[in-house]
Design goal:
With 334 residues, the chain is α/β, with parallel strands linked by helices. α14 crosses α15. The longest helix is centred in the last third of the chain and has 28 residues. The N terminus is likely disordered.
Length: 334
């Protein structure tokens, strides 16, 4: 009898977790609204990252890690898709992503004797909250002996979990997540990360890029662009070798230069597809800024650290400041 009652209660809680989470319902309805923050606004620290640095050069992360740890943000926002953002999920996972996740939900066996963290991993994965699923992956990786097998791999979901866990470690181990974001969240005792990324604009941006790239091919404009990025990438690579890359790419001069290269360098071509490309790029970043604002409201954060590829930092900073937010950069920290 007790087992039946437990099963009913657990199924009810599972339904609430998977389909009734009120925060994300609120957040998804608000991402296109600019609004104003009537209460005291969250102070936002924007942290630009390089998405891959080999373990042999992991020294690049340390000084920025130390600065953020001293800054002590009480919430963290990351470059992951919001679980309820169906447009972005369709772009990333395909048209049939929902049916795939429904089948995984059916394969999730009822809770028995597995650890709470593995259950959290399952819950976040099935709820399409990949930021917090991957955070649990990091914590499992950090806290479990490397050769300790998981409880068992019998059953469809357990096999899937074991495989995905290993693949996530391989994919993220040399990224900002395993070297900066997740270790900071763990050290600061932050249990939940706020995903705020926007992918719905990616297709339009890619299509516009293909058009202007074709029209400007073999012109002096493209020579200028290629020369810019060659020098840009060589400079970044040299900074990585000195263990100063993350500090460097967060400098105001470099952020301005990255924004110039990303969305301004070909402005004088008056190419309509380049203008469309730039317009979509800035729309995406304005949407990201709005999602950060909604995350700050929902979390009631006093200070929020936001981690994105550094190309996003200059435009997101502009849109946050337009709405009255105080924005700090790594160079502002001691």
């Amino acid at each position: 009898m007790k087992s039946k009652v437990f099963n009913l209660v657990f199924k009810g809680l599972l339904y609430l977790i998977l389909f009734g989470t009120p925060f994300w319902t609120f957040l998804s309805c608000s991402t296109s609204q600019k609004g104003t923050f009537k209460d005291k606004k969250t102070e936002v620290l924007l942290v630009g990252v390089i998405h891959y640095i080999p373990d042999s050069l992991s020294c690049n992360w340390q000084s920025v890690y130390d600065k953020i740890l001293r800054y002590k943000p009480d919430q963290i926002s990351v470059e992951y898709i919001i679980p309820s953002d169906s447009a972005s999920l369709t772009f990333s996972l395909g048209e049939n992503y929902r049916s795939t996740w429904d089948s995984l939900t059916l394969a999730w066996q009822e809770k028995k004797n597995e650890s709470q963290r593995i259950e959290l991993w399952k819950s976040y994965h099935l709820n399409l909250d990949f930021a917090n699923r991957d955070y649990q992956t990091y914590l499992l990786y950090k806290n479990m002996p490397p050769n300790l097998p998981f409880i068992d791999t019998i059953g469809e979901f357990k096999k899937f979990f074991n495989d995905r866990h290993k693949r996530l470690i391989a994919a993220r181990k040399e990224s900002e997540f395993f070297n900066l974001v997740f270790p900071l969240a763990d050290a600061l005792d932050i249990p939940y990360l706020y995903p705020t990324d926007e992918r719905a604009y990616n297709l339009a941006q890619s299509e516009a890029y293909v058009q202007w790239d074709a029209e400007l091919k073999n012109t002096a404009y493209m020579e200028k662009l290629n020369s810019f990025w060659k020098e840009f990438n060589e400079t970044e690579a040299a900074q990585i070798l000195t263990c100063n890359a993350i500090e460097f790419v967060n400098s105001r001069d470099w952020l301005e230069k990255s924004d110039y290269g990303q969305a301004q360098i070909l402005h004088d071509t008056n190419n309509k597809y380049y203008k469309e490309y730039v317009n979509v790029w800035y729309k995406r970043n304005e949407s990201i800024a709005n999602r950060i604002i909604e995350a700050s409201r929902a979390s009631k954060a006093r200070k929020m650290a936001v981690f994105y590829g550094y190309m996003h930092i200059a435009p997101v900073k502009k849109y946050l400041e337009r709405q009255g937010f105080t924005v700090k950069l790594i160079g502002d920290l001691k």
